[in-house]
Amino acid sequence: MQLNDGERAILDGERGEGARKAMELVVALARVYGAENLVDITSAHLSGASYKTIGDGGLLYLEDMAAGGAKVAVRSTLNPIGMDRERWPEMHIAGDFAEKQLRIVELYGMMGIETTCSCTPYLGANVPGVGEHIAWAESSALSMANSFFGARTNREGGPGALAAAIIGKTANYGYHLDENRKPTVVVEADIGDTLFEHSLLGQAVGSRIGAGVPYFKGIKPGVEEAKSLAAAMAASGAVAMWHAEGVTPEAAGCDLTGLETIKIGPAELKEAEESLNTADDVELIALGCPHLSVREMGEIAKLLKGKKKRKDVEVWFCTSEAVRAACPKEVEVMEGFGPVLADTCMVVAPIEGTFSRTATNSCKAGNYLPTLCSQKVVCGDMSDLLRAIQ
Ligand code: F3S
Questions:
Q1: Other CB atoms closer than 10 Å to residue 384's CB: what's the count?
Q2: Atom of ligand 1 nearest to the CA of 348
Q3: Whose CA is nearest to atom 4 of ligand 1?
Q4: Nearest partner of 144 among 162, 119, 166, 163, judged by Cα
Q5: What is the reported pTM?
Q6: Ligand 1 centroid to 200 CA: how many Å?
């Protein structure tokens, strides 16, 4: 593996202890994955932000990195944390959890990371450009970056993305290289245009192809449909890169000769939906996985305007602080049903202490709620879930 003089100097501690440790980790990862060199990145997006997922070990690691003077070298944004920074009491969060969670955010801030705390940085906070090398964690966001935006990133883990952000470089392998971005299977999709159907499509495809690179025909996803699709494929499989004919920037150059074709239609969507449903009634309806966009906030407010919540079910709407601030009228309507929470989500918040049955319109959440939050799940279309409690 080749390192240039500047990279070797960082490894020798010239930029301080934090940067030295970061370079050590990036070089170790590069060796593991057989990278020949490092590549400069233009941005990073970091996961490992919730105290629930990183625990005291992760907190100590961040204390150590910040104390070593580590500072990010490129624009870096942060994934959702375990609670809304102000409204955490409404989420039944304990005070000691909140204290540690706020310290984690503070430490990321000290290292120069924008504490946006959202899994949809591409909606405004951190928008990657075509062909840019980046180091993003968060499986749905990095899949969007690779595919919908045409940037180049591997499935970085939390510490790897932080280390890459600090030195401004990552290991040059995997989806940074042209040969690994080519489609491996064609998917002919026969689905409707709702977000939930795109999520189910992702569930069906991810569970069939694992870590392949699908080339979609028959869909024309906008950013909301694409994020539902990408999130589900990353959770039911390990898809980090995909193409959609006439939509994604690299689709036009794809050679489909000799590729297997799979067909996904109503029967496969039904099977995907049934595979995720394990509850009949719920205590919490949680929407916003990935975080709600302005358009989705508008659609929800339209569904709820003039209606009353008549069932004793908690409702959470999860979005970014920026989107919440941009939608005051929608927020007012939605708050009649439940809190519009920023910075957090139903999976990285410690909901398992409070709820045992949760409804979602996201197949990504449908995969993770049982395993990471001990929930039984209802996975259904957003409008059906909201109508059932009016
Ligand atoms: Fe985002 Fe949480 Fe879903 S991080 S993609 S809302 S599991």
A1: 12
A2: 2
A3: 119
A4: 119
A5: 0.97
A6: 16
Does any ligand 1 atom lie closer than 6 A to the CB of residue 119? yes
Q: Is 347 in the pocket of ligand 1 (CB under 6 A)?
A: yes
**What is the DSSP code (8-state) at residue 261?**
E
pLDDT digits 0-9 by tens, 302-350: 999 999 999 999 999 999 999 999 999 999 999 999 999 999 999 999 9
Q: Please provide the distance, in angstroms rounded to a whole number, between the alpha carbons at the two ends of the chain.
A: 61
Nearest Cα to Cα of residue 86 among 333, 342, 287, 290: 342
| Count of CA atoms in the C-beta half-sphere (13 A) of 189 | 27
Domains, the chain, ranges and CATH? Answer: 5-178 (3.30.499.10), 182-274 (no CATH), 277-387 (3.30.499.10)
Residue nearest to atom 6 of ligand 1 (CA): 289
* Smallest CA separation from ligand 1 atom 2, residue: 345
| DSSP conformation letters of 38-90 | EEE-SEEEE----HHHHHHHHHHHHHHHHHTT---SSEEEE--BSS-TTTGGG
pLDDT in tens, 169-185: 999 999 999 999 999 99
Between β-strands 314-319 and 75-78, what pairing exists: parallel, antiparallel or unpaired?
unpaired
Measured in Å, residue 320 CA sits from the centre of ligand 1 at 11
